[in-house]
Each structure stands twice: as C-alpha cells, then as structure tokens.
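Here's my example:
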Amino acid sequence: MLDRSIGEFARFVVIALVTTILGFSTGHWWLALCAGLTVYLFWILWQQNQFDRWLSNGRRGPAPTSFGVWGDISDDFYRLQRRHRKEKQKLHAMLRRVQDSTSALREGIVALEDEGNLAWWNPAAEQMLRLRPDDAGQPLVNFVRDPRFVEHMYQRVVLQKTANQEPITLPAPGDDSRILQMEVTRFGQDEALVIVRDITRLHNLEQMRRDFVANVSHELRTPLTVIAGYLETLQSSGQAPRNWDRPLAQMSEQTTRMTSLVNDLLLLARLETSERDSGRDKVSVRELMERVASEARALSGERHALTVECDEDCILTGDSGELHSAFANLALNAVKYSPDGGPIELRWYRDDRGGHYAVKDCGIGIDPVHIPRLTERFYRVDAGRSRESGGTGLGLAIVKHVLLRHSASMSVVSTPGRGSTFTLNFPAHKLTATTSA
C-alpha cells in the first residue's frame, strides 16, 4: 500500500514538473501547472466514477480498466471477487451435498432461525410434520401445538436450558396413530436444529409388552392365591404325610416368591403407564426412614447393626407409596447382601443440590462393569446368590421408575469386597423445611 502511494505521489510530481516546464516556455507557467493538475484531478475522478458504477451494477463482469492507484485497486478487488466467487461455489456445493445427504435420512431434520422460525427441512420432516414449501419463516409451534413441545421449545431455544432435557414423545400433527420423538438442539446465536424420529413401531411394541406383562401378572394373582391357600391349609392341618413336609415347604416358598414377582411386575406396569410427577403427598423423611429401618431390622432379625442418621428432617413432596418402595428397596437389598454382623447405615443429608438418601453397607460389593445395568429388569450381578436371597430382580428397576416420576436420580459407589453406597438424589424444589411445612 505504501509503494502504491509513493508511486502515485511520484506521478503527481512528474505531471507538476512537466506542466511547469512547458509553462516557462510560454511565459505562463502557473496557468500550465493549474491546467495539468486539473486534468490529473479529472482523470482520477473519472476512474473513481467508473469503479463506483461497476460496484453499483452488482460487480458484473471484470472490473473497469484503470491506471495508477485506481487501477491497482480495481485489480485487487477483481482478484478478491474471483476468490470469493470460488469459495461461494465451494460452499454451495457443500450445502448441496449436505442437503442431498439429509434428504436421504429417515429422520426428519428441521433448521430453525430467529428463535423458532422455520428455515429449512428435509423431505422426511416435511412428511412427518406435514409442512409445505410456503411455510418457511413461520414458527414451528404453529404446526406442532402440543403443550409439552411448546414448553420444550421455550426451555431450549428461548431460555437456552439443556440440562436434564429429554426428547419429547408426542402424536404426529394431524395423525394420532403415529408417534414422533422430537429433540431440539440449539447452536449459533438464534438458530436451532430439530431432530424428528418416527417411533410408532417401537411405541406399539413397548405398549404391547406393558399390556402383556400387566395382564398376565394380573391373571396370575388369582391362581397363586388359591395355590397358596391350599398349601397353607395342608401345612397347618397336620393331616399331610410326614414325607410331604419338605415338598410343601418348598412349594410354599416358591409360591411366595412368585407372588412377590407378580406384585413387582404390576407395580412396574403402573409406574410406567401413569403420569410422571403426579404425587402431591407431603412425606416426612425422618418418619419414612424410621419405618423403613423397622422393616429392615425385621428382615435382618438382629443379624446386622443398622443405624439411622437424619441430618435435617424435611418434607418430601411426591407419592408416599412410591417413595416408601424406593427407600425400602435399597435398605432391604443392603440387608440381603451384607454378611451377618455387618453395619448398615441409612443417612439423609441436604446440600445446595437438594436432598440425598444414602444406604451404605459392607456387603459383597459390585464390580464397576455391572453398575450401568443395575436398574435393568431381571439383571443380576450374581444370579445364584440373588435367587437364594429371594429377590425378584425388579427392585432397582422399580427404584429407577420412582425416581423418574420424582425428577430424581440415583448414584452408586461400590468396591468389590468392601460394600456399596446407593444414593437417591432429590432436587431442591421437591423439599420443604419441616418448620415451614
């Protein structure tokens, strides 16, 4: 840039000297100098005007041919224009490839701008959401009016909250027979991406499984009750042959275990089908822990040293029966899997993140590889030992569903051979101090 300025200044000096020398030959050097500088000025303005007209016409064609500093500017600008044009072509080609690839996806992709307005979508989203080309620029919530999705959009796009936000499952707009799963992801300043999946088949299979488990479990209750009644009658009558005592005892034990399994399956089915976060009972944590401790001591038969520690009594809002089931499952598991004489600690404490119910035992412990699968139905770390203890394999699955309905979570810390600590973490908005309650 400095070299160009020096060159233009040198050109100006040369014109001034030449016109001055010519002016001395005529005796009017100052008139000649003014005329030469005027011509130079008009020449510069003419080049500027040509360049400005080229810019005003949308930079069509090559830049105008000029000399001097404006010629250098025109050449540089034209080179930048060609480079920009090549980059633009590359971006367009890349955009076409992205659009072609997303058009082949079975999942719907919707791009949003300006805090929720439709910018672009692929054919799958057009089919699932029933969009039309002239819908661009309109808010997505005009087409998906489910209140849960509207709230989900508000949390993700407007408030920019991403923590603990699961995808939304809802019927397809205008077609209740199809079930869609929608997830909103924010990026950039005012942009978001919506992923739409058709999960109708999975939803129907899951509903079929739930109905089957619930119906079969319900139908098994009556025959199990009859069998248990006759077995109890035979055992208490004293008229059965002596060699029948052991078979009757084993049959009674297995009937009891089967009844527990059916009851747990029915409870799981109810937890899955009922609405989340529906409980509004006011449950005293201290009283609940004392009740659970009494049940654990009854199961232990004084074989374990069980202690209860409640740092701060609180009122926990939720379903009292479900909360009792979750608290008791952890305590009874600690009794079942701890050796005789081992200590078991039930503790409640509160911090900035909320309230925490921890059950610590000194049992066999759990290998870290098993921890992610503990809440799966019928998953057993040690199948033989679990059956000996009389477990159904559904306790932690029930705990998981109870926690989901109470916006809570569970964490597990365990070392094989040294015991485990299961902690239920409840959010602060579920807690109320006993004094204010």
In short: The mean pLDDT is 77. Residues 2-99 form one domain. The chain is about 50% helix and 20% strand.
